[in-house]
Write a structure and sequence with these properties.
single chain; 617 residues; mainly alpha; Growth Hormone, Chain: A; LAQU0S18e01948g1_1; MFS_trans_sf
Length: 617
């Protein structure tokens, strides 16, 4: 992901994007399905969003003009040396996009093909536990659906809590380890943990295994240690930045994300086909998934060459050691007692996990303007509200849908594929077309939110409001409202890429990894709080007013739509110039103040003048 820089700016130090773990897991008839197709797909949209939005807006054109004026950076030299070294390898060892896509496809298919059978078999296991009449025959147990819903809600709440805490703590650490030890060891670690996770899940749902809610919770929480599909995606993006020219990264990331979309949409269908071909054996997809993950580990170990330059690894290790020494200096401080020193040391280590959040509190511009800080904080608030009104509400929504409409595994698989493929179509087809139309109507800005961004954000949030209001008001008996909900939710798929691309405009290009790490922490904390709360609300109201939990997401979406009108467009680049850019105002820029004037115009100059005058005052 690259954005055009002013002349003299250095190429960003592309690091590993810090990761977000989305704390979702299996439910009675669809929580794991929602985990893969909504929560993780939202991160897929977020990961590829900046690339696709900038590509659709034609952001790559201005970069080439500045690249030739810049001296070769350390990162560019490392890339050149790595490509020269890798060119001597055989094609099947050489780091490339095709090998990466094949590797990620193995893992993605293994994850998604076990969605439906895991739901069905886990449901039967819960029925076995709550139906004492048939403890040894879970497939013949007769479920008390309201009781099963409440049981699953409590299980899911505990599981979300565990996965949320683990995911939040690992969000920055796994990204740091990727920078220090390389992308290949992280892929190997992910494969190993994912293999253990699937085997643990299979053990808990075997007919011979006694029912235990805590076994189910812990088995499904093992995958949190791997970072989920989001870690695979983020590590893949880091792999791309290591071995791809900046001008080619947009297309490369888009192709990787297209591979993920295809796997998310087709994985459940492959699992259903495996069950049919094996005469209804729900365990067959797990066998195939184990084969796929084992192949992933073997292929990564033998064929996938480390992409990160050895000097980059050493630099990351040096920074880590320097930071660790600064922490350890607290222990050697003789001015405080031992207990106090140890407490401060542990507190610093914990706070270091949250250090990326500092990137969201922007310093005043060189002219003292706080507009960038306020804009970024509003964008972060929009992201939180968007999560609450989309991913955060889907878990209890699926429970509600399975209870009211009695969805079976076949229809659930169709619904999963519809969500996955639908979001892919919106992001890859409709979103670029929509942006193309907006480009003809408005002018794009490089350093500030523009009318194109605002229209995209407002359209997406309006779609979310309509989707929740429709299912809250319309009370049909055939479940058609679920399709309406899915369609309008899918239309909001370009919200995250637009928001991420807008955030990049205000932040330093040399610390994008920390920026995305901060967003990951905020999103992870949001998912740690709101989905369990909504799930508990549904668990206590499913027999009386099952739709009452939807009120909170509806209010969140309305508030987000209103907040978009508090974002202002600024056309004066000097007003938004960061302190780190103060030395970049060269004589050539002063001599050509209108360079790129097409991108600096704005459809609302009145707002810009007002903000500029207020800032000077």
């Amino acid at each position: 992901m690259t954005e055009s820089l002013p002349a003299g700016d250095q190429e960003p130090n592309e690091g590993s994007p810090l990761l977000r773990q989305n704390p979702l897991g299996p439910d009675l008839e669809g929580l794991r399905a929602v985990d893969v197709t909504n929560a993780e797909l939202e991160y897929v949209v977020e990961s590829t969003g900046v690339a696709l939005v900038e590509e659709a807006m034609g952001n790559g054109s201005s970069q080439q003009s500045t690249a030739t004026d810049e001296p070769e950076t350390e990162e560019a030299r490392w890339l050149r040396e790595s490509k020269l070294k890798h060119s001597k390898l055989a094609w099947y060892y050489r780091p490339s996009l095709s090998l990466l896509c094949f590797t990620v496809a193995l893992m993605s298919l293994a994850e998604t093909m076990v969605v439906s059978p895991s739901i069905i078999l886990t449901t039967q296991k819960v029925c076995q536990g709550i139906s004492p009449g048939s403890p040894s025959s879970p497939d013949k147990a007769r479920c008390d659906m309201p009781m099963a819903q409440s049981t699953f809600s409590s299980i899911q709440s505990a599981q979300m809590l565990i996965q949320g805490i683990v995911g939040t703590l690992l969000a920055g650490k796994l990204g740091e380890l990727s920078d220090r030890f390389g992308r290949k060891p992280i892929f190997q670690y992910v494969g190993f943990v994912r293999l253990v996770s699937i085997l643990a899940i299979v053990y808990t749902i075997l007919p011979s295994t006694p029912y235990s809610r805590w076994k189910i919770i812990l088995a499904n929480s093992v995958q949190a240690l791997s970072g989920g599909l989001m870690l695979t995606i983020a590590n893949g993006n880091s792999y791309i930045t290591d071995c791809t020219e900046p001008k080619d990264r947009t297309i490369a990331i888009s192709m990787l994300m297209s591979t993920i979309y295809a796997c998310i949409g087709t994985g459940p269908l492959i699992g259903s086909a495996a069950i049919k071909l094996s005469s209804g054996n729900n365990y067959m997809p797990f066998v195939i998934a184990v084969v796929f993950i084992t192949s992933f580990i073997i292929f990564t170990t033998i064929f996938l060459t480390e992409s990160r330059h050895i000097n980059a690894l050493r630099q990351s290790q040096t920074k880590f050691r320097d930071r660790r020494r600064s922490f350890e200096s607290v222990l050697t401080n003789s001015s405080s007692i031992s207990v106090t020193r140890h407490g401060r040391y542990q507190a610093l280590k914990i706070l270091d996990l949250l250090s990326p959040l500092k990137k969201l509190w922007l310093p005043p511009s060189v002219h003292g303007s706080l507009i960038p800080r306020y804009t970024v904080l509003i964008l972060v608030a929009l992201d939180v509200l968007f999560i609450i009104s989309t991913t955060g509400m889907v878990v209890p929504l699926v429970l509600y849908a399975t209870y009211k409409y009695r969805l079976d595994s076949v229809h659930l698989g169709y619904f999963i594929s519809f969500i996955g493929i639908g979001r892919a179509i919106v992001l890859l087809v409709l979103s670029p077309l929509f942006l193309h139309v907006l480009k003809k109507m408005y002018t794009r800005l490089d350093n500030s939110i523009d009318s194109i961004d605002l229209m995209s954000l407002r359209t997406a949030m309006f779609s979310v409001v309509v989707s929740i209001a429709a299912i809250l008001v319309w009370d049909d008996t055939r479940g058609l409202i679920l399709l309406v909900f899915a369609v309008f939710q899918n239309l909001s798929a370009f919200f995250s890429p637009t928001l991420q691309a807008t955030l990049v405009k205000y932040c330093s290009k040399s610390s994008l990894g920390e920026l995305f790490g901060a967003i990951a922490l905020v999103r992870s904390a949001t998912m740690l709080v709101f989905p369990p709360v909504l799930l508990l609300v549904y668990a206590h109201t499913n027999t009386t007013k099952p739709k009452i939990f939807m009120i909170v997401p509806l209010l969140a979406s309305i508030l987000a739509f209103v907040l978009t009108f508090m974002l202002h467009i600024v056309t004066d680049p000097e007003l938004l110039r960061r302190p780190s850019q103060a030395s970049l105002a060269t004589s050539s820029q002063i001599a050509h103040p209108n360079k790129g004037s097409k991108d600096q115009r704005m459809s609302t100059p009145r707002t810009s003048r007002k903000l500029s005058s207020n800032n000077r005052g």
